[in-house]
Design brief:
The complex is a heterodimer. Chain A is mainly α. Chain A is built from 23 helices and no strands. The longest helix of chain A is centred in the N-terminal third of the chain and has 34 residues. Chain B contains five helices and two strands; from the N terminus they run E-H-H-E-H-H-H. In chain B, helix 3 runs antiparallel to helix 4 and helix 4 runs antiparallel to helix 5. Chain B is flat. The chains are: A mainly alpha, B mainly alpha. At the A-B interface, helix 9, helix 10, helix 20, helix 21 and helix 22 of A face strand 1, helix 1, helix 2, helix 3 and helix 4 of B.
């Protein structure tokens, strides 16, 4: 109980609340500007959170991302341009509603059911994370090895249309993680005599490069027509929400559940959750013919899904240190920086920190409603912010932010290289998310693999002798080999 | 730039081979079967196999995938300039910030980028100065990040 009180004290400290307010406005803005994503918001926040106490830093990230995922709906609805990829699934639908003069209903549904989905995901996080942590206390290096491998496998299966390219992306990430002294033998690998590389390639500069710089490059090379903003005034967005909630309770629950689950799967985040929920909604709807013509049902379901995914992705991140999406990949970096190393012991040794994270999620999703309303009111002005000015300023911010982590220009070079590499890879159909997971989890995978190998004296059979390890191992191998086998069987059956 | 998968595959195979050869020189730990070479060696081997598969798939789709496909933006001078300007801006910062100082390099790259992105010069100049000062104030004054003064060191405050 004391821990809970401590948590309340930390979350409701004036400093934390001010930071949450600032982060909210920042998140709403970044989400509402097309081309700036929630992940980018997180990457840009990191250099600033570097100077904050742990809970305040997490508060900034939790609020900014929750807000950004909601406010991504706004330009989707008004411009048909999703503000973040998480809103892409239903941007056409929302825009069709605006065309029909129902912008209020679309935006209101996005806002209210984002908050509902977010709170649902939070509830699952509060219930499941401690249970999983309790279970995970019994894990040894064998279980962790399989768990990380299973997580990486999920990331590829879920995120890539072409698994081969996902695997390549992952392997490149793992290789980057090998650089430096940070391996079980303490031997400097791939440093080529550079002292800068001894400590490994900095994770934060790399993430800022991959998520912010690559986004600026994408903007620079984007050839497209300028869009016109719909100028009809926006009225009361909360009208009709209660009726929607009563009409679509199953959809809200299902969207939130699917969202949380997809979020918890490593590698898949809010955007995939929204696409899946929208598809499920259409498939099971009583009026599927209305989808695409400005029908609110799909927005209700997938709007709930993308925000619940955000909370869901924190479950594996906090319990195992395995990120559920690219945002939590950055969060894990921040947690390590703050000496709040993720893992089951986080729940037993400093429970107040975990309770504080739970509280932050609840507060963030509640203040989303008034602040989101404000954002909708000033949306048209945000959408007019010229991106040709915004992007250079963001670039300078990235440079300074990267420099601020270790005060070395070398890191700025890392950011540049990572940004260009991410842009080239993504441009050629290689998904970036597996690479991030590879970088974040490479050290953990190797450490548990080598420890296990030493324990078993080089025998691979030992990886299957403990019951939980064996189960995880079989699951992992099934995820590798089942899809191709099933595909082959289907082809045979058809022939 | 879109490349044929085979181009990527070939590059990956070369990288993988280089790593596999390179890790052979890593020391072994006496009395243990696993050393620092094992993990990167395995990853590189897997990368080599994937690279080989990519080469195969690239050659199979040779008809629809040219070796290098130029995209729309590469034919627009403005977009090529914008792309190169972003990369050049970061490179210039790395090369010059320590020597010349943040307060000079910052506005210079902001101004250059804004103008390349199509902002009119007077507005770009104002933005370059105001944004640099705002970032400088936040990071140097509030967060105490030692942004370099460079040639302005005698005037540092």
């Amino acid at each position: 109980m004391d821990a809970l009180l401590l948590a309340f004290e930390m979350v409701f400290a004036p400093q934390t609340l001010w930071v949450m307010l600032g982060a909210s406005l920042f998140g709403l803005f970044v989400g509402a500007v097309p081309g700036l994503t929630a992940t980018m918001a997180t990457a840009l926040l990191v250099p600033v959170t570097f100077f904050m106490p742990p809970i305040t830093a997490i508060a900034a990230i939790v609020t900014a991302t929750a807000m950004a995922i909601f406010s991504g709906d706004v330009p989707g609805c008004l411009l048909r341009m999703p503000g973040t990829p998480a809103s892409a699934a239903y941007a056409d639908e929302a825009y069709a509603m605006t065309k029909k003069g129902q912008a209020e209903l679309a935006l209101g549904a996005g806002l209210v059911f984002s908050a509902v989905g977010g709170l649902f995901g939070t509830a699952v996080l509060i219930v499941c994370a401690p249970m999983l942590a309790d279970f995970a206390l019994r894990f040894s290096s064998f279980e962790y090895f399989w768990l990380v491998l299973l997580g990486l496998t999920c990331a590829i299966v879920v995120t890539s249309e072409r698994p081969l390219k996902g695997v390549v992306s992952l392997l490149l990430g793992l290789l980057v993680a090998c650089v430096g002294l940070g391996n079980p033998a303490g031997f400097p690998r791939f440093t080529f005599g550079s002292t800068e590389l001894m400590g490994g390639i900095g994770m934060i500069p790399m993430l800022i490069g991959m998520f912010a710089l690559s986004e600026i490059l994408r903007y620079a090379t984007h050839v497209g027509a300028r869009t016109v903003i719909d100028t009809q005034p926006i009225g009361n967005v909360f009208r009709g929400m209660w009726a929607l909630a009563r009409k679509y309770p199953v959809q809200i629950l299902r969207g939130s559940t699917v969202g949380t689950l997809v979020g918890a799967l490593p590698g898949a985040g809010a955007d995939i959750a929204a696409w899946m929920s929208y598809a499920i909604s259409k498939k099971t709807s009583k009026e599927p013919e209305k989808f695409g013509t400005g029908h609110v049902e799909g927005i209700v379901e997938s709007g709930a899904a993308n925000n619940s995914a955000l909370a869901g992705s924190w479950i594996p991140a906090l319990v195992f240190g395995i990120p559920g999406d690219s945002i939590t990949a950055i969060v894990i970096g921040v947690l390590y920086m703050k000496n709040m190393n993720p893992g089951p012991t986080l729940f037993t040794q400093n429970p107040q920190n975990i309770y504080a994270v739970f509280l932050l999620f609840i507060v963030a999703n509640l203040i989303m409603i008034p602040l989101g309303f404000l954002c909708i009111k000033v949306a048209k002005r945000i959408l007019k912010v010229p991106r040709e000015i915004l992007m250079p300023v963001i670039l300078l911010f990235c440079i300074v932010g990267t420099f601020a982590i270790n005060n070395t220009p070398f890191d700025v070079g890392v950011m540049l290289a990572a940004g260009v590499a991410a842009w080239v890879l993504e441009h050629n159909g290689f998904p970036v998310a597996p690479a991030i997971l590879g970088v974040v989890l490479g050290g953990m995978l190797e450490e548990n693999f080598i420890t296990s190998m030493i324990k078993s004296d080089g025998s691979l059979a030992a990886f299957f002798t403990r019951p939980i390890a064996a189960t995880l191992g079989v699951l992992t191998l099934a995820a590798w080999f089942l899809p191709p086998v099933v595909r082959r069987l289907r082809r045979v059956a058809r022939a | 730039m879109k490349f044929n998968d085979a181009v990527f595959g070939a590059i990956l195979v070369v990288i993988a081979l280089a790593i596999v050869v390179h890790v052979q020189a890593f020391p072994t730990i006496p009395g243990q079967q696993v050393g620092p070479a094992l993990f990167p060696g395995l990853v590189a081997a897997a990368l080599g196999i994937c690279g080989f598969l990519l080469v195969l798939s690239g050659l199979r789709h040779r008809a629809s995938q040219p070796w290098i496909a130029a995209e729309r933006w590469t034919r627009s001078k403005r977009h090529v300039a914008a792309f190169l300007a972003v990369i050049a801006a970061v490179a210039v910062y790395i090369a010059l910030a320590e020597v010349v100082g943040f307060l000079i390099v910052g506005p210079a790259i902001l101004f250059a980028l804004c103008v390349t992105f199509g902002v009119r010069a007077p507005l770009a100049a104002i933005i370059a100065i105001v944004a640099t000062l705002a970032i400088w104030f936040a990071f140097y004054k509030l967060l105490r990040v030692p942004l370099p003064w460079g040639v302005l060191t005698p005037f540092a405050f």
